[in-house]
Amino acid sequence: MGGSVKRLGLVAASVALLSLISAQAQSPVLPGPGLPTSVAASATCTFQSFATEAAGLSAATFTSVGIGAAASNRVVAVIPMGRITTGGISNPVTAVAFTVGATATLSQVSGAAATTAAIEMASDIWYASVAAGTTATITVTWTTANTRSAIYVYTINTSTPTPAHGAENTSSSAATLAQSITIPTNGCGIVGAAAQQTTNTMTFTNATLDQSNEMSGAANGTEGGHLTTTNSVTANSNVTANAMTISLASWSP
């Protein structure tokens, strides 16, 4: 009799244990204090190419421009800069078209277009999701004619193609020009600046300088850079330029 009671007790304990295991298997496991949680991959902003022309065309075409490695999460951003003939306009660039096998039209980053009122310098940022290809033909259509222009090309690897923020600033006479930009957590940003009347190498404060180049045909300085934290970025022309512009954009991861 005593043996039967013991066996019944063991059976009951086994059933209770199996029920507890089953209940735990069906319940979600939530992270507690000190336990790791999943972290979104960071966005990356990478400089790819610079190109310039001095043909003075309202539609400037750049061929065989490097756009980086193909990737399903790739955004290609183009920073056009130009010495245009009419100042004070709100949108110096009306379109940026891309040919990588097929033609795609880029979108303008809201808030990034910059044009000085006098000594007409301009900069802007346009972007599109482009998964395939490593080179492209890029055509920048200007609102007004320019005497010379240039582009900086960046790739942004991100799951959020639409930019988080855009910003710009201008000056008609300065050696430096600053503008703040918000960078989302784990995000990144790009910046382009142009200065009229400078042959010196331009630099950035609070952004990594990728390249500084002159536009073809005259002493108009340009530079492109990137950053990963919210900051006020300063473009340094290293001389007092007749005009300067700066354009910035940021992306989430």
Give the count of helical stretches: 1
N/C terminus separation: 69 Å
The largest sheet, given as strand count, sense and whether it forms a barrel, is: 7 strands, antiparallel
Query: Helix proportion of residues, in percent?
Result: under 10%
Radius of gyration: 27 Å
State the shape: globular
Strand content: over 45%
Number of domains: 1
Secondary-structure element order, N to C? HEEEEEEEEEEEEEEEEEEE
Main structural class: mainly beta
Q: Total number of β-strand segments? A: 19
What is the average of the pLDDT values? 84
Indicate the low-confidence ranges by residue numbers.
5-11, 20-32
Q: Topology, please?
A:
Elements (H helix, E strand, L loop, with lengths): L1 H25 L17 E10 L5 E8 L7 E11 L8 E8 L1 E4 L1 E2 L5 E2 L5 E3 L2 E4 L5 E8 L3 E12 L7 E7 L2 E8 L6 E9 L6 E3 L2 E7 L5 E8 L3 E11 L1 E9 L2
Antiparallel strand pairs: 1-11, 2-10, 3-8, 3-9, 3-11, 4-5, 4-10, 6-9, 7-8, 12-19, 13-18, 14-17, 14-19, 15-18, 16-17
